[in-house]
Prior knowledge:
The structure is a homodimer of 327-residue chains. In chain A, 44% of the residues lie in helices and 16% in strands. In chain A, the strands form two sheets. In chain A, strands 1-2-3-6-7-8-9-10 form an eight-stranded parallel barrel, surrounded by seven helices. A two-stranded antiparallel ribbon of chain A has the order 4-5. Chain A has a single domain, classed as TIM Barrel (Alpha-Beta Barrel), CATH 3.20.20. Chain A is α/β, with parallel strands linked by helices and 327 residues long. In chain A, β8, α11 and β9 form a beta-alpha-beta unit. At the A-B interface, α2, α3, α4, α5 and β3 of A face α2, α3, α4, α5 and β3 of B.
Amino acid sequence: MKNFADRLLEAIDEKQNPCCIGLDPRIKNIPQYIRDENIDKYGNTMEAVGRSFLDFNMGIIDATHDVVPAYKPQMAFYEQYGEFGVAAFKRTVEHVKRNGCIAIEDAKRNDIGSTSKAYADGHLGEVELCDATTKPSLDVDAITVNPYLGSDCTNPFVENCKKHGKGIFVLVKTSNKSSGEIQDKQTDIFGDAEKLGYVPQVFTDVAQLVDEWGRDVIGERGYSSVGAVVGATYPIQAITTRKLMSKAIILVPGVGAQGATGKDTIPNFNKDGQGAIINSSRGIIFAYQTEQFKRNEFEFDKAARESALAMKDDITSALKEAGILRW
Amino acid sequence: MKNFADRLLEAIDEKQNPCCIGLDPRIKNIPQYIRDENIDKYGNTMEAVGRSFLDFNMGIIDATHDVVPAYKPQMAFYEQYGEFGVAAFKRTVEHVKRNGCIAIEDAKRNDIGSTSKAYADGHLGEVELCDATTKPSLDVDAITVNPYLGSDCTNPFVENCKKHGKGIFVLVKTSNKSSGEIQDKQTDIFGDAEKLGYVPQVFTDVAQLVDEWGRDVIGERGYSSVGAVVGATYPIQAITTRKLMSKAIILVPGVGAQGATGKDTIPNFNKDGQGAIINSSRGIIFAYQTEQFKRNEFEFDKAARESALAMKDDITSALKEAGILRW
C-alpha cells in the first residue's frame, strides 16, 4: 500500500504542477446545453442536476488531467442534491482516478469516536455489507477533516491513512474572514512568544496536533499523509504553521475568487519547493464565464484548460521567484 | 413559518418527554431477517444495506413515535454507503415527519461562506434545479453544526432557520474524551474568572457566539432556534454553558453507551424545566441485544419501545428530583 504523501508528491512532480482543481459545481453556472440534455432525459429533477454535474465534471477532467495532479470535489455541492448528488460525486471520483489523478474530497468531516470511524471507513476505508464482508465505498484518496473534537475523533481517519494508503488534510487556519473568531484565540499568554517565535493560538495548537497525528504515516519522501488546510488569504500565519508542521503537505485554498494571489501561497511551501498543493475552483471550472478566458458554453472545457495552465504558470512563477522551483 | 424552537418545545410538552432517539444504524446489529430479506431482493449490495437501514428505522419509528418528540439520525452511518445510504436517510426523515415527529440531523457540517450556504440550502432550505426553480432537498428540521470556522460560515444556516422555520445545534462541548484538547483551551488568562464565574475557554467563547447567533430567531416561548450540543459526560461544564446561552435549546448526547446518567443531564435544563433535549442511540435502537431489554430479533421494535420508555422515566425522574419537572 503506497503512502498517500508519496503518491501526491510524485503526481505533482510528474505534472510539474503543485495545483489542483476544485470541482464545485453550481447548476446555474453549468452550460445550458448540458442542463437541457439532462432535463430531456430525466425531467426537471434532482437526478438531472446530478447528471449535469457529472457530464460537466467529466468535461473538465478530460480537458485538464494532463495539467494537474489532483482534483478537489467539494462534497457540499453534491450532497445538496441528496442521493443524486452523492452518486455524481462518486462517479466524478471514479473518473478522476481513471485518469490517473488524485481525488481529494473536501468535506470537513469529523464526529466522536465510533461515528468518526463510520466517516473514515465510508470515505477512505471499507464498509460492511449485509453478510459482514467489506467493500470500499466512496473511496477517495484523501479527505479534509475538522479538528474541533480532538484526537480520539481524528484517530480513525489516521488509522485508515495507514491501512489504506490514504490521506487527510486537517483544518488549521481556514481562508474565510471570520476564521479568526475561534482559530486566532490566544491560548497561552504565559508562553514565551519571543522564544517560540510565534504567539500560541488555537490554530498553532492545531498545527502542533497535526504534526503529532502525522508521525506514523510519513512516506519515503519525508512527508506525512496527515496534511493540513491553511488558507492562502493568511500568508503571515502560514509562515508559523509551515514551521510547526514541517512534514505536513498543506492544502491551500483561497487563490482566485477569494482574493489571494500565487505569491501569497509561497509561505506554505518548504525550502525544497514541496509541501503544498494549491487549489482553485470557480476561477478554473467556470473560466468560460470570466472576462479573461471567455468562451461560448460549448467550450467550457477549453476555457478551464487555459485557466488551469495560467494558474500553473502563476504558481510556478512565484516558486521560481522565491528560488524554490523544483523543475 | 413556525419557529423551530417553539415546534420542538411543543412536541416535548405533548409527549411529556425531553428525549430523542438517535437513529444510528449499524448493519451488523440489524436483525438477520431484515438483512436476508434485502439480500434476496437486492443482492449483497450497498443498496441492500440502505434498504435494511430503512426497514429497521421504520420499525423503530412505528414503535416509538408516540413516546418521543424527535429522532436524531446520524448522517455518518448513512453516508458511509454513498447514494444508497443517503436515500435511506432521506426516506427515514420523511417517515419521522409523516409520524408527526421532529427530525434532527446529526452531521456536524460547516464550511466557508458560499460552500456553507450549499450545506444550509441542501439540508434546511431549498436547492436550485436545472431550470432555476428551487425545491427542498434533504429537508430536515434541524442540523448539528461545527463552529471552528466562525460566524460567516454559520450565518447561512441561521438565515435558513429564519427563512424556513428550521433549527441548528452548534457543537460547544462534545461528549468524547479528547474534546478538551481544543475546546478546553483557556483563552483569556487576564479575564476575571472570579467575577465572571467561569474560566474563559474555547467552549465558553463558542457558547457566547451561540447566544449571539441565536438572537434573531427566538420563538414565542423565549427559546432560540440556534441551539447547542453539550455532552452529558461534562455536567460541570454544562452549568457554565447553560448560563452563557440561556435561550439555547441544548442537545445532550452521551447518555447510555457513553456512560452518562439521567442525572448528569440536569445542568443542561433551565429552571423552567425546558431548554434541553437528551439523546440516546444504541441503548434504544439496539435494546433487543442488551441484557436489560433482551428480545428475539423479530421483536427489536418492542425492545426499543421499552428502552425508550425507561429512558423517559430516567430523565423525568431526574427532573422531578431536581424540582423542575413540568408535567
